[in-house]
Specification:
By secondary structure, this protein is mainly α. The chain has a domain of 38 residues. It contains two helices and no strands.
Length: 56
């Protein structure tokens, strides 16, 4: 199994990933509990979908 994580410099992180992180942190900071409803789930996960890599 191989696991690689990280981008190095923060400016190397693609903008859609940075936006998704900001949305998630804002959602949690605004007093929401740890659960995320379907609407927030789509908004947060849609921008990161192209960057996911699934392999078996």
């Amino acid at each position: 199994m191989t696991f690689t994580a990280g981008y190095g410099d923060p400016t190397d992180v693609p903008e859609p990933l940075r936006q998704a992180i900001q949305l998630l942190v804002q959602h949690l900071f605004d007093g929401a509990d740890a659960s995320i409803d379907a609407a927030h789930d789509r908004v947060i996960h849609a921008p990161i979908a192209p960057y996911r890599r699934w392999a078996v």
